[in-house]
Amino acid sequence: MFEPTIPFGEPELLRVSAFQRYLHEPGGPRARGVVVEGAARQPALSPSLLADLGRFEQAGQASEALEVLAACVRHGQQVVVHLQMGDMVVPLTVFAIERLVHCPISLDALLKQRPTELRVLHVEPAVLRPPGDVEKALVGEEQHYHPLRPVLWEFALRGSRATLLPEIAGPVAYRVAPGIELGDLRATGVLAAAIQRLQRASVSLRELSDWPGFDGERAARLLNALYLQSGLIISRTHRAATDSWFGALTR
Q1: What is the 3-state secondary structure (H, E, C) of 39-97?
Q2: According to the lineage, what is the superkingdom (predicted)?
Q3: Which residues are 235's β-sheet partners?
């Protein structure tokens, strides 16, 4: 019997074929009828999180990793996201409140992959607990815990989503919050220059897309990344928010 979450040490990664057998076996998620377009989810997830994830699975599209991570952060839930990496499955446990993740492989190894190829197979409540939890038997080895921030940053900049997240889309103006700390994140060159400009003025998505080194996709990725770092100020009353061009760059 496959255990979907292994709370001790570094688990041996499952092959996708074995994981798919678990999803389809009697009593598994698919047999219980909780599958929506390829993403199996346990009913124990909160109704609000399930509803949020369901928005991304309309029109026959499965959830993208960035969308799932963003939803977990918004709802402050502890979940494990099973990601397909090649022919293996990596369980990425997200502790939204503690701003941590647990990953059985090194974060460098995970982020070295093309995030566009990391497919969400399954999302369920976490069994693992964060460091310091009273349930000590369910706390993993210290070296497998990492900050959440760089994971969100890299998935936003290099993942499969190339348009704005719904929460920040629309006729709005964007500005970077004063005092944002990005020192441990990969923000150099045109990204660093754009962030500095965004600290000084509010702009629309269209204006940002016209900056040197940017286009519509790169602008959307940067705004998603800043939003998930709690570093984005959004205004619907600023004059730049009257831009009506945003619709072509969101979905």
Answers
A1: EEECCCCCHHHHHHHHHCCHHHCCCCHHHHHHHHHHHCCEEEEEEEECCEEEEEEEECC
A2: Bacteria
A3: 173
* Cα–Cα dist 105/11, whole Å: 9
Q: What tokens does 158 get?
A: 């290099």
Q: How many domains does the chain have?
A: 2
pLDDT tens digits, one per residue of 166-200: 899 988 999 999 888 887 788 889 999 999 999 99
213/108 same-domain check: no
Domain with 32, as residue range(s), is 14-134+142-158
Name the pTM for this structure. Answer: 0.81
Cα separation, 237 vs 164, in Å, equals 19
> Are residues 202 and 128 part of one domain?
no
**Has residue 72 been placed in a domain?**
yes
Domain assignment present for residue 215? The answer is: yes
Q: What is the pLDDT of residues 10-32, one digit of tens each?
A: 457 889 999 888 887 776 655 55
Q: Indicate if 91 and 174 belong to the same structural domain.
A: no
Secondary structure of the chain in the HEC alphabet?
Answer: CCCCCCCCCCCCCEEHHHHHHHHHCCCCCCCCCCEECCEEECCCCCHHHHHHHHHCCHHHCCCCHHHHHHHHHHHCCEEEEEEEECCEEEEEEEECCCCEEECCCCHHHHHHCCHHHCEEEEEEECCCECCCCCCHHHECCHHHEEECHHHHHHHHHHCCCCCECHHHCCCCEEEECCCCCCCCCCCCHHHHHHHHHHCCCCECHHHHHCCCCCCHHHHHHHHHHHHHCCCEEEECCCHHHHCCHHHHHEC
3 within a domain of the structure (yes/no): no
